[in-house]
């Protein structure tokens, strides 16, 4: 009965939002959503779905739990050093103006980190930043962050590009202006093409092997030859050649051809 209830919930969510929860790892997703449903006092997923389809706050909370919006500036700083000093100079030399995409950008720390690096390197670029969660995108557009989000951000960048309020830091318009935020479902929507750099980190871990396989193909097709896919520290791609990719550095994959 319980499984039938959850499967019906998956079908209802897909019908209402286009989000296919069947493409996420089931045990992980079910555990997370069950704890949220019970916390909110709903005995079944049927009752919970009725509630989220009528209550916007509950719906955004559901999306938030599903997508795990945890991010910081310069997360895993060593990898950003490689991007800044090895990958971006090559891409700029190849393309002049670097076309970038921060996919599943959550609350914006990642595309803003990229923008800060591009400013520091004085490189011309455009950045598309996308996520499935409108609540996360709304926070990203505001560009207001706590100390915790900025713990790995270099102090000179904080003093130059952030205005400090009592409890938070507001990012400057100079950092914001090259970024376009957009709602986008990685699993269902079409991808733009001719990217020099795609960053998609700490997202693939939530998807089934089949969904990952399809996404790597789509990312590869979206890259220019010589373009780079930058993935998270738990997301090494085995046999990247099947996606026309090759390792350029740890967690950086270059499009072949």
UniProtKB/TrEMBL annotation:
Top-level taxon in the UniProt lineage: Bacteria
UniProt-listed InterPro entries: Bact_Chemotaxis_MeTrfase, CheR_C, CheR_MeTrfase, CheR_N, CheR_N_sf, SAM-dependent_MTases_sf
One MF term in the entry's GO annotations: protein-glutamate O-methyltransferase activity
GO BP terms, alphabetized: methylation
Name recorded for this polypeptide: protein-glutamate O-methyltransferase
Enzyme Commission number(s) of this protein: 2.1.1.80
The species this protein was found in: Brevibacillus reuszeri
Name of the top EC class for this enzyme: transferase
Entry-linked PROSITE patterns: CHER
Alphabetical UniProt keywords: Methyltransferase, S-adenosyl-L-methionine, Transferase
Reaction catalysis annotation: L-glutamyl-[protein] + S-adenosyl-L-methionine = [protein]-L-glutamate 5-O-methyl ester + S-adenosyl-L-homocysteine
CheR-type methyltransferase domain location: 1-257
Pfam families per UniProt: CheR, CheR_N
CDD domains: AdoMet_MTases (cd02440)
UniProt keyword Methyltransferase, yes or no: yes
